[in-house]
Amino acid sequence: MTDAQRDAALDGEAGEYAEAKVRAGIWSRAESLKRSQEEIRGFVGAHPSDRGHEFFVGLDAEGRRIGWLWWGPVPSPGASPDARWLFQIVVDAGVRGQGYGRGLLRAAEEHLRATGRTEIALNVFRWNTVAVALYTSSGYEIASQDDKAIEMRKRLLPS
Predict the structure, then answer these.
(1) Domains of the chain, with CATH numbers?
(2) Residue 92: which residues within 8 A CB-CB, separation 6 or more?
(3) 103-122 in b/e burial notation, b at 16+ Cβ within 10 A?
(4) 105 and 134 in contact (C-beta within 8 Å)?
(5) At 95, is the secondary structure helix, strand, or coil?
(6) Strand 119-125 relative to strand 141-145, pairing
(7) Strands, DSSP E only, in 5-158?
(8) pLDDT tens digits, residue range 18-60?
(9) Cα–Cα distance measured from residue 117 to residue 84, given in angstroms and rounded to the nearest whole number
(10) Fewer CB within 10 A of the end CB, N or C, for the chain?
């Protein structure tokens, strides 16, 4: 993903993340966009790759864009340097429901495994039942949960 594509994706992500936090009952609508932008900037900083964040565009077999992915260091103290946090996986609206989410997730896992990563973790809102089902059926296990969100993890075993 180019820097311009990444910046556009993160701008869009700020709005989506703000809406998700409102839907989950975590933030009020009035504060959500500002808080979302601040949180994302706090994770990635001015130079995301310097902090270990990676962004990829997903393409189908014909080379058409079908979505994007973002992962980086696990945002909790004491996390293994060999683990990565899946911050976002997006399937573009026009191609949802065709298995691309599963394909993007599999590609992320394969890339991370090939680069020596041993675990992938993520957070998913409880209301996002499609995503919860995808992660569960892909071998992710619940690490922790509350009434609004579920943290899930998967060991990336050598192939």
Answers:
(1) 3-155 (3.40.630.30)
(2) 65, 66, 67
(3) bbbeebbeebeeeebebbbb
(4) yes
(5) helix
(6) unpaired
(7) 54-59, 65-72, 83-91, 119-125, 141-145, 149-155
(8) 999 999 999 999 999 999 999 999 989 888 998 999 999 999 9
(9) 7
(10) C
